[in-house]
Amino acid sequence: MTLSVRINPRILEMQYAVRGPIPLRAAEMARAGRKIIPCNIGNPQALGQRPISYYRQVLSMLENPALKDQPGVAKNFPEDVIERASGMLESSGIGTGAYSESAGFRFVREDVARFIDARDEAEARGIPASDPDAIFLTDGASGGAVAVLEALICDEKDGVLIPVPQYPLYSATMARLGGRLVPYYPDEDGGWSLNRDIMEEALEEARTDGVRVRAIVVINPGNPTGALLDLESMREVIEVAGKWGLSIIADEVYQENTYGGEWHSFSSVLGTRDIPLFSLHSVSKGFYGECGHRGGYLEVRNPPKVEGEDLDMLDILLKQASVNLCPNTMGQMMVDLMVRGPEPGSGSESLFLEEKKKILGDLEMKASMIRSAFDEMEGVRCFGRTGAMYLFPRLEKLPRGCNDFDYCMELLEETGLVTVNGAGFGQAPGTHHLRIAFLPPVEAIKEMLPRWIDFHHRLLRG
Q: Which of residues 290, 318, 339 is at a domain's end?
């Protein structure tokens, strides 16, 4: 007789549409020999993006330092790669096979702080300098987001303002913690912009329901929308957070994926305002695409005090990190490479810049191709400035009785294209969307788009 066990109902409530029924059906089809085009997840190297040579060369030598003494290595590895790996190992003091400090290698956190200050032009603009002691290296940006939410959510009356549509990490984590997801709806027709009325309407409703809203999550550029947030929207978020006593959780993992659009960090816009800010970044996105290395960082500014204790949020995050011993060391090393690439004029710089330009250029071209295809599809509209790795078109015309899940499933069955229906991320009532990651090779997208256009119009004609 098979044992039956009781499972935490909060775990049972968790949903993650990116790996939900549509991708599961796609996996069945692939096993049966069908050609599948997976556009459901931001996993660049799984879809053919080549790793950056400099990163993998340094990582190789970090894992196997004896390589530098083997014949022929100098011919295949530029001298600056060998020097960088040797310097990182020396700075670590322990190599990659031992536990690091719980918050992560000190030298990496110092490099992250310098990266943030340079990115934000902190000194020239009078922005407070980044503090390595307020930076935590994490297993992907997800590790930092979960740590902050775990600390803030005490019971079912604690809530977090989360944009809808949203990346399912946030809804799944809130379900697991038993807190309240308080949705706010960016203005889709306005390019997924924000204003205080949008946020304060959600806050007022939550307060009426007895919910204590602790923080607001902002994803910029957006996931799943892909939209780049404008400066005025960011200022509105900061004003609302200050007025309502909220912390800001800024998910900024797509900050390299702006394709010529102007991006601002929340730390640069916040400036000297005394509002708690938790900023997240990751090696998984941008042009690096190192999802499997699970590297990321969490930077904290203006850490809030702990009620009734002589502690602040940094103490709590360090306690959480200590329980987990440390983030994975190769992910930490990859973070260091992300924030400090090859030195100008070094033997690796030229190829590094060439590879970076090609990856970002290809992403922009593929996004443009898909957006142009939407213009040929009746009742399909896509809003906002292109960013991140996704497009989130609105399906304004569907056959009677058909929703966005049905659309995406039929699209999969007919064309092999794997997308995620908008309901998997949440969406404004009465609307239908899908999310597509524009990561497959250009040729695969060129081949797929005419079939998608044809499918769309045949579906509408019934």
A: 339
Tell me how many domains the chain contains. Answer: 3
259 and 205 assigned to the same domain? yes
Average pLDDT over residues 306-311: 84
Identify the domain containing residue 83 by its residue range.
53-91
| One domain, residues 247 and 188 | yes
Strand partners, 267: none
Is residue 13 pLDDT above 80, yes or no? no
Helices 53-63 and 79-92 pack at an angle, to 10 degrees, of: 50
Residues of the chain above pLDDT 90, percent: 69
CATH number at residue 356: 3.90.1150.10
Q: Is the pLDDT of residue 237 over 70?
A: yes
| Confidence (pTM) | 0.91
- Specify whether 77 is located in the same domain as 113: no
pLDDT tier for residue 17 given thresholds of 50, 70 and 90: low
Same domain membership, residue 57 and residue 43: no
pLDDT of 405: 93
Position 311 in a domain: yes
pLDDT in tens, 106-132: 999 999 999 999 999 999 999 999 999
131 and 45 in one domain? no
* Model pLDDT for residues 320-359, shown as the tens digit of each residue: 888 888 998 999 999 999 999 999 999 899 999 999 999 9
Residue where one domain finishes, among candidates 339, 362, 388: 339
In-domain check, residue 148? yes
Residue 204 is predicted with a pLDDT of 94
Residue 174 lies in a domain: yes
**Residues 420/358/345/54 CA torsion (nearest 10 deg):** 50
Question: 167 falls in which pLDDT band (50, 70, 90)?
Answer: confident
